[in-house]
Amino acid sequence: MRSNRALALAMIVVSGVAGGIHGQTLGSTASPVFEVTEATIDDVQAALRDGRVTCRRLVEAYLARIHAYDKAGPALNAVQTINTRALEQADRLDAVFKASGPVGRLHCVPTLVKDQIDTMELPTTHGFVGFKDFLPQSDATVVARLKAAGALIIGKATMGEFASGYISSASGPIRNAYDPRRSASGSSGGTGSGVAASFATIGIGEDTGGSVRGPAAVHALVGLRPTLPLVSRHGMSPSRPSTDTIGPMTRTVRDAAILFDVMVGYDRNDPVTALGVRQIPDTYTSSLRTDGLRKARVGVIREPMNGNTNANADDYRLVRGVVDRAIARMLELGAEVVDNVTIPDVIERLKRTYDGNVFETERAMDAYLRSHSNAPYKSLRDILLSGLVAPARARTLMETIGKSPDDLGYAQVLRNQDDLRQLVFTLMADLRVDVLMYATFDHLPGIIADDAMTRTVLPDTAGLGNNRRLSPVLGFPAIAVPAGLIGDLPVGIEFMARPFGESDLFRIAYAFEQGTHHRRKPPLTPALTGR
């Protein structure tokens, strides 16, 4: 829940900004205005170098937007906690910049971090009201790397409770920046809605079964689910360690590549990252080529990968039209398209391997809680017994209680997973494709029910027509990119590559982005300049 102190700070920022950045548009002779809406990392860095903005004024502008559109206006509910020390930290970054230049590649780049990832200066709620005052005693590895690169954590983004869905006991429903009646997708919905509305320059999400790519797709963003060993999960509350990972959420492919450069690397606190050693290029930005689709072989999956898809629905047909136009444009950009790729029994296989995996959560969550001596709860059972978890999330978490990776059922899940992985490896080899492409969702995001917070079942928690599960089950990386609009609502597609194929993903996604320019800012959160 948002503190009164944080809200008061945002209000002070708004009232004071007329004499700062926004006041410069009212006949002032001050330096030219720097508009933060849709600003990229490069835009921010250039404005700092040229003296068009200071870090303090930059942060003031973003805080003003959070107050105007998250706390009021469309009330997106994207920011769980505002960093009340943001202006103080901005002043320090300004002093360093003046004395010796930028701290790093992300100097003073305002960043939203999903509230699942530990920050020792800001509460980490995991979307659970019982953790609203929980301050971890150290930063997660990815947060430490962001800070070392000069990033400024402007706030923690709201999230689906314990990494699922779009509602939580800590904040209620997260709202879509393009239509607040609708879901922002989950569970990194706050990061998605917040970055889309320019509450920060960039954002960090977490992806267990699609939680980076879903919010990215419905907000015309770029969202990368990386190969699991590339990014440390140390300091992040787990859901399913075999598929949990952290990824960038940005408005451009270039920003995603720059941010990903900062995030990746070995961390002895997360031993799985040892498998990523020597798999990381000097910079992923070297893959960004406008001709990156030329002669790339793209396999297109059209078949639904979720049993709740309704092929007779109007929005299904409209999404198909967006996908058709994306394919046509890829062909114009030089891609070789292998259409109608099919994976035998894909819906049932994903049910067995993803939905059937209830064995990891309790043990992993209990270990995370024990690692924090000041955590208000010490086990997942205690959390559920508190009665504070939103009913729909409590129901799904109850299915994991008493289950363990030692159970025979878990061995069967892993066998099914290996079978599906081998099948897709073989399929891609036989078709000689570099990547597979598909719609992130076959339907538009659903309308949030008035009683969503009290229901025990939310049929669209993961999003109707959800195709995101294939990537985590396989252990393949995937990137969501904007593919077009249906009315004002964005539609996203995904490209999925073999493990450690992030360079291919950035190359292809960048070429598609530069050849289409489908990114549109939300009409409900316009620039505040001059207001």
Describe the structure.
It is built from 16 helices and 13 strands. The protein has 531 residues and is of the alpha/beta class. The protein has one domain (4-516): Amidase signature (AS) enzymes. The strands form two sheets. The protein has an eleven-stranded mixed beta sheet with strand order 1-3-2-6-8-7-12-13-11-9-10, sandwiched between helices. A two-stranded antiparallel sheet has the order 4-5. α1 (4-16) crosses α3 (55-70), α3 runs antiparallel to α4 and α10 packs across α14. It is globular, with a radius of gyration of 22 Å.
Share in helix: 25-40%
CATH architecture, please? Answer: Alpha-Beta Complex
Q: Write the element-wise H/E pattern from the N-terminal end onward.
A: HHHEHEHEEEHEHEEHEHEHHHHHEHEEH
What fold name goes in the CATH topology slot? Answer: Amidase signature (AS) enzymes
- Enumerate the strands of the largest sheet in spatial order, edge to edge or round the barrel: 1-3-2-6-8-7-12-13-11-9-10
- The count of β-strands is 13
CATH homolog superfamily? Amidase signature (AS) domain
Per DSSP, the total helix count is 16
